[in-house]
Amino acid sequence: MTVRTKTTIFNAALLRTGHSDVTEGEGSGLWRALEANYDEIVRVAFEEGNGSYPFGKVRRTLTGRSEGDFGYSDSFVIGSDILHITEVFLDEIACSDIHEPWEVDAQAGTLLINASSRTVEVEGIKEGLEYTWSGKFAIGIQRKCEAVIKDVEEEFGEASAKDQDADFLLMKAGVKGSRNRSKSRVFNKGRGRITTARRTRSTRVMRSRS
Fold first, then answer.
1. For 127, which DSSP code?
2. Dist. CA 148–CA 199, nearest whole Å
3. Mapping DSSP to helix (H, G, I), strand (E, B) and coil, where does residue 110 land?
4. CB 133: neighbour CB atoms within 10 A?
5. Could you report the per-residue pLDDT of 104-146, keeping only the tens digit for each?
6. Among 78, 87, 138, 196, which is disulfide-ready with 123 (CB 3.0 to 4.6 Å)?
7. What is d(CA 97, CA 124) in angstroms, rounded to the nearest whole number?
8. How far apart are alpha carbons 203 and 9 in whole angstroms?
9. Angle, nearest 10°, between helix axes 156-184 and 135-152?
10. Domain assignments of the chain as residue spans, ordered by start
11. Cα–Cα distance, 72 to 131 (Å, whole number)
């Protein structure tokens, strides 16, 4: 069985839109368009899923502290392989549980936080973990890639239809992911952890320097 990768998703999208599959790095115009849009497609899908997808994640400790910015005392390099941060931990405690704000400086690729000498870890979506995705989520991303192809070919109506199909598939994947998590996670009554996590999620900001 073929292991799912970015390349297999690209080729599935190409074949489904009437094109021949290609070898990674061949440099065709369509392949370059897919490469240019893919990371953002995946990032936005996970962002809009709001934590409902249980796959594609890694957790790592950040080191190499430097002076912060935008009112934060500390800055840590995230790593270019992390597409989207889902949670930050200080001394193994989730920031959403202790109402600790943090931001991402998109241009510098850094996490901004008031760490106060605590160990900083991030949980995030890592590139190269397509093989862990659910089938519906993977097909949703493939449909987004098909929409890119149709957009390049100036078939805008078809591109819009594929975008809508992709959004539906990603929504269904998120619903299933939430159901699976609810079966395996138990919370003590009265702690309000889920409510707290959702309420404090608004403190996250993706900074982009002008």
1. T
2. 34
3. strand
4. 20
5. 998 899 999 999 999 999 999 999 999 999 999 999 999 999 9
6. 87
7. 17
8. 34
9. 160
10. 1-55+129-210, 57-128
11. 36
